[in-house]
Amino acid sequence: MGGTGAGGARRGRRYDPERRTRILDAALDVIAEHGTAGTTHRTIAARADVPLGSVTYHFASLADLLAQAFARYVELQSATFEKLFEDVATPEQFVEVVVDLVCGGPARHRSAVLGFELHLAALRDPGLRVLTQAWTWQSRAVLARFTGPDTAARLDALLEGMIMHALLAAEPESREATRAAIVQTLGPAHLEGDRHARARGI
């Protein structure tokens, strides 16, 4: 009887359907704070508030855990990126959303850090490049709905560079300077087309 009760208790504690996702989210938190080089099974387990054995049970290796955490990041980030542009109706609104991506607050800072950690890891692990490529294609597809594919590719490259500079700069670039660089990349036709459309009442 006592053994059965103890076994039942252990089974009850083991049943945690959200544990795997919680471990992945904890891994992303640790990567954002310490980088992939400072990420271990122990730091992830502590952040997720789970036993160390639970981490090694769910993931075959630390490399496997990091790859799945980055895959979750790309999935979440792609959905967030798509949602940012849901209510955009004019080129001016589009520009302001893009400027916000560069001049964002703490939440954007965390996502940017994770993005660059993924790209750095992908330089050393070709297997992760599938994720970076998929993320690039998805992001450019969203941008291309407003700009066309060629301009979307240029804008995407500009954004990556500007976001990196924003993370590293001691003095952040002004919002006005950021906006000017984005408008220049888009070209005058982008905003002029909207002005003409509004003038015609479209």
From TrEMBL:
InterPro entries: Homeodomain-like_sf, HTH-type_TetR-like_transc_reg, HTH_TetR, Tet_transcr_reg_TetR-rel_C_sf, TetR_C_31
Superkingdom of this protein's organism: Bacteria
DNA-binding region: 40-59
Domain spans labelled HTH tetR-type: 17-77
UniProtKB keywords: DNA-binding
Annotated source species: Nonomuraea aridisoli
Pfam families assigned: TetR_C_31 (PF17940), TetR_N (PF00440)
GO molecular function, one term: transcription cis-regulatory region binding
Protein name: TetR family transcriptional regulator
